[in-house]
Amino acid sequence: MNHYNTIASAIDYIKAHFKTQPDLQEIAAAVHMSPFHFQRVFAEWAGVTPKKFLQYLTLDYAKTILREEKVTVFDAAFEAGLSGTGRLHDLFINIESMTPGEYKNGGKALHINYSFAESPFGDIIVASTSKGICHMAFADNQQQAFEDLTAQFPHARFTQMVDLIQQNTLYIFTQDWSRLSEIKLHLRGTDFQLKVWEALLKIPVGNLTTYSHLATTIKHPNASRAVGTAVAQNPVAFLIPCHRVIKASGDTGQYHWGSTRKSAIIGWEAAKKENKDG
User: Which residues are catalytic?
Assistant: First the structure.
């Protein structure tokens, strides 16, 4: 059973009452569950206790990660082209840019398969061409999610079906990476956007970076605002981890699919990283 909505409500409550440091009983009551049941559900979803998860959502934690990342982790991962201890084990994610012909007249030449699936953070829509994933987004409303997809490719042909490309990609949520082969993304974007998205792929699981540091990493140190725009236009939720970019202050900032979901993903990844490292 997917308990994301319950967890999201709990996270909202924790963030709203952070200054009073609510205990387990208070948080459980806010989501209409017994403390015992809530603790079990939360631990099943996050892999850690609510108290531990709360630590991952604090500014102090974010600032610590940012300090560590600026010194070694991000630069090392970027230079190596992969993340070693964090990002997707031995998995490589390659981006192939759509040619002008493939995107001409609103994707007239494209045949796109799409499907809906569950993730730890709510339902998603995932779409693919014969060359790779072209779109993935959280789908709180399936009809709206499909309309958003078709708006990106108004003249493409759409078939609702799960293909092998999608199936392979969805293993990312189970972290059963032994079943993953190379994931390919088939994206439409400017050279600058593609460069930003490729840099995002090199941020390890459980780590965070800032817009300004990301701009420096891609050798455009004065382009923080443009980098922020490219991050916001990321067409592949979670897989291209735009949720790992936060404000220099340590505040998580905005997210296309909701700030609560961003906090949930950051905390969930931090828990997975700690459990793996521990």
Answer: 242
The first and second tokens of residue 233, run together, are 């236009």
Q: Which long-range contacts (CB under 8 A, 24 or more apart) does 29-33 make?
A: 31/6, 33/6
Instruction: Extract the tokens encoding 247.
Output: 């404000």
From the number of C-beta atoms within 10 Å of its C-beta (0-12, 13-18, 19+), residue 16 rates as exposed
C-beta separation of 123 from 213 below 8 A: no
C-beta of residue 225 within 8 angstroms of C-beta of residue 86:
no
Q: Which residues contact 151 (CB under 8 A, 6 or more apart)?
A: none
Residue type present at position 205: V
pLDDT above 70 covers what percent of the chain?
86
Give residue-wise pLDDT tens across range 209-248: 899 989 998 889 999 999 999 999 999 999 899 999 988 8
5 and 140 Cβ atoms separated by less than 8 Å: no
Confidence tier at 84 by pLDDT (50, 70, 90): very low
Q: Which residue, 5, 1, 14, is CA-closest to 44?
A: 1
Q: What is the pLDDT of residue 53?
A: 85
**Which pLDDT value is given to residue 91?**
45
Cα–Cα distance, 142 to 30 (Å, whole number): 28
List, in sequence order, the alpha helices (H) in the chain: 4-16, 24-30, 35-46, 50-56, 59-68, 74-80, 100-107, 142-152, 164-170, 191-200, 211-217, 224-232, 259-277
Q: Map tokens 């759509």 to a residue.
A: 98
Read off the tokens for 26: 């208070």
User: In residues, how long is the chain?
Assistant: 278
